[in-house]
Specification:
With 281 residues, the protein is mainly beta. The chain is 5% helix and 47% strand. The N terminus is likely disordered. Keywords: Signal.
Length: 281
């Protein structure tokens, strides 16, 4: 299905991020919602990533190449782009014992890196987020978690095979509080990630389907690290249709400073995914 992106305009409603005391709110970053656009859900409803030229790459169920479907990779997550390389997160059926990251070079050559599940690891492969130095690949599982997984970034980290192969988890980002149903994360700086959560329970954070911020004490470097989590704000859930929304991918364009997050509306409106844009000020 051909992707379609239609800009609806620019909003000037400022959103104050952060929760807790008034003093904490005063020092929290502030973002302003700058626009809403739409992409077709089949072609782009799983995630997005910004290219160096400012254009956007979308991923949806229709994006999965036929040869990967034949191999059993039936779900693609929120992608990332680093050094011109596209990183895609794939998962298989409920009986899967591995997950896969596909890396496509700027020349269009695709390599597959398969990670065999560790004991207790969930099969979900919700997203791929590459550290700003291009050396580490962060991913996450479904459900309630207190960690993000970290792998050497395929192709870009010399510790990985040069033409696909096995990918072993190197270490983890331990989270100081649990999170639930993370659909995508992206690095904003060397020491900060923003993550989109589909948690609608309100039990872990006051906001429903929140955008979470994970702050690290130092840049990722191959050693275990603990991240501090806080909820910034609830992602918009606006539609003429009623029912259950679903949070999807998130992207931060370091060149323009634009943050984007996806939300699939309920019912028949689910054919088009909303893409909300923000700028920090």
């Amino acid at each position: 299905m051909k992707r379609h992106l239609r800009t609806l305009g620019c909003l000037s409603v400022a959103l104050t991020l952060g929760a807790g005391t008034a003093a904490a709110a005063d020092t929290a970053p502030h973002w302003a919602q700058t626009g809403t656009a739409y992409t077709d859900t089949l072609g782009g409803g799983q995630g997005l990533a910004s290219r160096a030229d400012g254009t956007l790459l979308y991923r949806g169920l229709a994006s999965i190449p036929l040869d990967l479907r034949i191999k059993g990779w039936n779900h693609v997550g929120d992608p990332d782009i680093a050094r011109g390389h596209v990183f895609d997160a794939y998962q298989g059926p409920d009986t899967a014992t591995s997950k896969m990251f596909a890396v496509t070079t700027p020349a269009g050559k695709r390599y597959e890196y398969v990670h065999r599940l560790n004991p207790g690891e969930k099969l979900n492969n919700s997203f791929a987020a590459v550290s700003p130095d291009g050396q580490w690949l962060v991913s996450g599982e479904w459900g309630e978690q207190r960690r993000l997984q970290v792998f050497p970034a395929p192709l870009l980290n010399p510790a990985t095979p040069p033409a696909g192969g096995d990918l072993t988890e190197t270490w983890q980002i331990t989270l100081d509080k649990p999170v639930r149903d993370i659909q995508g994360c992206d690095f904003v700086t060397d020491t900060r990630l923003l993550c989109a959560s589909n948690d609608a329970t309100g039990t872990l954070f006051p906001e429903i389907r929140p955008l979470l911020q994970v702050d690290l004490p130092h840049k990722v470097d191959g050693r275990p690290i603990t991240g501090t989590v806080k909820s910034l704000f609830a992602l918009p859930q606006r539609s003429v249709c009623s029912g259950t929304f679903e949070t999807e991918g998130v992207d931060y364009d370091v060149n323009s400073g634009t943050l984007r997050a996806e939300m699939i509306p309920p019912g028949v409106c689910a054919v088009a995914t909303a893409v909300y844009s923000y700028r920090q000020g």
